[in-house]
Amino acid sequence: MKKKITKLLVLALAGAMVFSLAACSNSADTNSPAPSGTGDGGSAAVTGDTINVGALFNITGGQASLDEPGYRAFQLYFDELNAAGGINGRQIKVVSYDGKTDQTTCATNTTKLIDVDNVVAIGGLSDSNYAFSAGNVAQAAEVPFVFSGATTPSLNDIGNYVFLTAFGDDTCAYAAADYVTNELGLTKVYMLVDQSMDFTTTLARCFQERLEANGGEIVMTDNYMNKDPDFSAQIDRFLNDSKGAEILFFSSVPDDIGTIVKQYRDKGVTLPFISGDGADTPLLMEVGGEAAEGTLVSTHCSFENQDPVVQDFVTLYTETQGTAPENAFAALGYDCAHVIATAIEMCGDDVTPANVRDNLEKIQDLRCVTGTISYTAESHVPQKSATILEVQDGAFAFVAELNP
After folding, report:
1. Global pTM?
2. Could you name the CATH architecture of 169-299+388-402?
3. Could you tell me which of 216, 291, 292, 395 has the fewest CB atoms within 10 Å of its CB?
4. Are 20 and 60 in contact (CB under 8 A)?
5. What is the mean pLDDT of residues 259-279?
6. What CATH class does 2-167+303-373 carry?
């Protein structure tokens, strides 16, 4: 292990960056999820040899299957970085809070990170509803917030202190639509949409936009609200008249997707299913069981990708966390930390939220696990490829990589 990590560190230094995989020793307890609050009230953002960075993830509640892996990887990145000497001779202290899948809690804890813990930047959150709540607080305080997995493109409109690690929902949805029409040769789609989330409504809108541009059509749309326990009415409507649908697109979040696929299959729906990155969760297989087999997911990366950057992350995460990366949101958490660390390193000795923000905007062609990240003054949403996965034998398998 040490021999491999040393090789990675040498390669990173040769590229004038210390933010690739670093020495794997003396790490903190990365197997512990983010507590409800670990802030040391009143500590300065940069005190001598320490720089405070905030971590806000929904470790409990419906977003936990995305955000806990993201937090583990975010913390892991800085543990490895600190073990390799930190940034410009300073250690990074990650101050973490649980957003509890609650918008008010996310906003409140963002305020704590800024006003009490005096962080120079914040990373985290994989759903746009919670990102909007936290991002508006950070923007008002002029502290940069880099969202790890949130994807709604309109997050960019919050202001110049907000950045995305992931691609936008348009990329995810366009890739799904392209796969349906161009690879599967299907044109008639049934769509089920969670109307309670900005993420799901945006994903559905973008999917329909691209599908129609490709010559396809949404032949039937039905709706539900997050955490609805019973989809019998929607399924019965579909079974009564499917209007010639050839495939079903589910625009849903992690705590619903397993239930949806199970109930649709159990009531006799045999057509293929496809969804967006909200379905990139172990809950799809854990709750859906055999019904999840064959479900297609448009998401951020595949851990079957043989790119050394991907495989090195998989090895590091597996060896330190005791499990393989649960989903792409683990990789996004790692990449989020990489982005923040890069911007801090560019500050030299003058590490302030304003300087970190300015440097984030200067990042170009930063090679990360989920792709290459670049920002511009006009857009803080990186342009990346999307990956199509399929559930095979209870696990995600790589199908295709698309550049929509």
Report:
1. 0.85
2. 3-Layer(aba) Sandwich (3.40)
3. 395
4. no
5. 98
6. alpha beta
